[in-house]
Amino acid sequence: MYQIKNLLENDDIRVLTELGPFTVIEYLRDLSVSPANAATAYFASEMNVRRRQVICDLKKANITLQAGAMQWMAGDVSATTGIKGAGDFLSKTIRGKVTGESVIKPEYTGDGTLVLEPTYKHIILLDLDEWGNSIVLDDGLFLACESTLKQKAVRRKTFSSAFVGGEGFFNLGLKGSGVVCIESDCSREELVEITLEDDVVKIDGNLAIAWSGSLDFTVERAGKSLLGSAASGEGLVNVYRGTGKVLLAPVGNQAMKPQQVIEKEPVIVGDDDE
Q1: What sign results for the dihedral spanned by CA atoms 24, 30, 32, 36?
Q2: What are the angstrom distances between the C-alpha of 105 and each of 102, 146, 159, 192?
Q3: Exposure string for 192-210, b = 16+ CB within 10 A, e = fewer
């Protein structure tokens, strides 16, 4: 038996969202600062640059993590590689190489509590039952998921989508019933969700962070001809076509890294500078 105190009941911590076995918390203020960086930490918090963590309840589901994501655990918790034989290891090695994800994603089982490393990025929880039980993630966004979800490497439909679209040949796909946890540079409140029914969305830039596995992704000219594309000033666009959903960030990668928040020295203006 174990007890965890001064976590969820801490006045400086609030629960942002809960879904399945995952609870996302946020630290309202960074209290572990020095006088030299206190002002930076204060204004970072005012601009919603805050530490966030994921708490996993293993009594509800087994959890698969990105390698190195675990911070601490309590209770009856066991960790395995999630590899089931030599064939499975080879398959995961190939998938890791082509998607850029870690080859080994540890799987945690038991009935204890698992807490992940804090991050200054925004943590988004997605229920695959709302995505047709199949989703594709942009590179590097995966953090954790229920172990019931099957992972696979999703190949681009055309080579143009990899070469010209600024993406790799493969993305990480998840299939099944369960919840996935991703890290995003944009908050959930800013993300735009587009639902397609046998239709198309065209995006200038790599702004889509997740999309239904049922959609076809290609790169096409913005206009019907080279002249039309040149006239529009857009050139090539990322195209998602079919029936499903696209989760779209309104801006590119603007998130500050943690060290930029807590280590950057403030500029102090003295009387001599006036």
Answers
A1: positive
A2: 7, 12, 28, 29
A3: eeeebeeeebebeeebbbb
Tokens matching residue 228:
């039309």
Q: For residue 198, is it left (φ>0), alpha (ψ between -120 and 50) or beta?
A: left
Q: In whole angstroms, give the CA distance from residue 248 to residue 206.
A: 9
pLDDT tens track for 144-191: 999 999 998 887 655 554 445 455 567 899 999 999 999 999 999 999
Length of the chain: 274
Distance CA 107, CA 62 (A): 7
For residue 49, which of 152, 185, 164, 142 has the smallest C-alpha distance?
Answer: 185
Please state, in angstroms and rounded to a whole number, the distance separating the CA atoms of residues 153 and 175. Answer: 11
Amino acid at 233: G
* Rounded Cα distance, 155 and 15, in Å: 37
DSSP SS3 for 118 = coil
Burial class (CB in 10 A: 0-12, 13-18, 19+), 51: buried
Contact criterion met (CB below 8 Å) for 240 and 201:
yes
pLDDT in tens, 58-111: 999 999 999 999 999 999 999 997 665 545 545 555 545 544 556 678 999 999
> Which domains are delineated in the chain?
13-252 (3.60.160.10)
**Residue 270: Cβ within 10 Å count:** 6
Letter for the amino acid at 150?
K
Beta bridge partners of 219: 238
**SS3 category, 87:** helix
The structure tokens listed for 15 are 């629960």
Closest by CA position to 25, among listed 13, 38, 36: 13
| Separation CA 114–CA 79 (nearest Å) | 11
